[in-house]
Amino acid sequence: MPEPSEVSLPGSDLPQMLQMDLDIGDFCSNWAHCDLLSAYLARMVSHNRLDSLLFSNLYSSALNELLETVFRVHGKSGKLECSVRRQGGLDRIELVFPADEDTFRVYSEAIDKLSGKDAEKLYLEALFTEDEPDASLGLLELGVDYGARLAIDRAGDGRMCLVAELTLEDENE
User: Fold this and answer.
1) Which spans in the chain are helix H?
2) Residue 91 DSSP label
3) Residue 14 CB burial class (10 angstroms; 0-12, 13-18, ≥19)
């Protein structure tokens, strides 16, 4: 399991690489949007990495997990904002989207699972269950397999911000 990245949450001043805004209804109209957006954004931010193809594949997989989680669990209507920030080897993905209190609680509970000592066990149980996948599966995967640091915050406009900080490439390689 990778070591968790050094986290600079919340209120990080990392330089922004790109920003994309979508209507949540349009985004959630087709599951394929998760893969298409993650692949596109990963290619955009991989241009200056040591092994841009490997980095793009890892980044796309990580971002896809975030987008699939939002696809499954989000508020009814509004805007989905995706922002990518980077400083050195640290990448920060910020997703801001509509979320009522029940939605916020789902994310809060998932992130709480990651902070416990049984995170890997919970991830494997969720991964291999024969039941419907738990809403936290993608977030557990990010924390356990990618060493991501996750955080959420409430926006005053009925939306929430989901933040994932990752170190997918060692700058010294």
Assistant:
1) 24-27, 32-45, 52-72, 101-115, 119-127, 137-145
2) E
3) middle
Q: What is the pLDDT of residues 9-59, one digit of tens each?
A: 445 678 899 999 999 999 999 999 999 999 999 999 998 898 999 999 999
Other beta carbons less than 10 A from residue 35's beta carbon: 16
**C-alpha angle 69-131-31 in degrees, rounded to nearest 5:** 35
Nearest 5 degrees, angle CA 126-CA 29-CA 47? 75
Q: Give ∠ CA 114-37-82 in degrees, rounded to 5.
A: 60
Structure tokens at 92: 């920060």
- For helices 119-127 and 137-145, the axis angle rounded to 10 degrees is 130
Helix (H/G/I), strand (E/B), else coil: 150: strand
Residue 157 tokens, joined: 């406009």
Strand order in the sheet with 159-166: 16-23, 79-87, 90-98, 159-166, 149-154
Which residue in 83, 81, 80 sits closest to 18, CA to CA? 83
